[in-house]
Amino acid sequence: MSDSEEEESPDHQLKLVVLGDGTTGKTSLATRFAQETFGKQYKQTIGLDFFLRRILLPGNLNVTLQVWDVGGQTIGGKMLDKYIYGAQGILLVYDITNGQSFENLEDWYNVVKKVSEESERQPLVALVGNKIDLEHIRTVKADKHQRFCQENNLSSHFVSAKTGDSVFLCFQRIAADILGIKLNKAELEQSQRVVKADIVNYSQEPVTRTVNPPRSSMCAVQ
Fold first, then answer.
1. Boundaries of domain holding 155
2. Domains in the chain: how many in total?
3. Dist. CA 58–CA 135, nearest whole Å
């Protein structure tokens, strides 16, 4: 094997599905991660938005994250189980200033568990409290968040899609956990200074899109 072959690291692809009520900031979270931008005007996601971003994990491991942003109104829809199926990671997102958005996560999580029963491998599920920039008007207490994590064996995250606080770190930790990679303190700190990765974003309506994006479109990211 040549030196160049030894240096090459195969790409890993992970499907992450973002679930939760509307107005919790799911799209803002995905956009902040994938494009490092924040849209001040709220726009409801109808059906599904899809984002890609490649990140580098320790060991020179290239990982392409497929982020499926599911519209909040789809919880009773026929396509939801198809969106979730095959995901390696699920982000249950709520607004820390909206208690109802936290309570409704039980319904979202029940759908995830039902779909996962048919999967060979169980997805990693993360609880994500968004809008920590509004800590002064928080209504969902941190201990309630942590209790839900402990009861359901979920990973715990607090982020602000608006300021970008801990957003990259959230996705980095989830990807690392899925792949069984431990991040040390230096690597976590380095993630806060990460150089922008290559980005692809496109949005499609559920009527016209396929459940699984064509493999060629994912491999085309350079």
1. 12-191
2. 1
3. 32
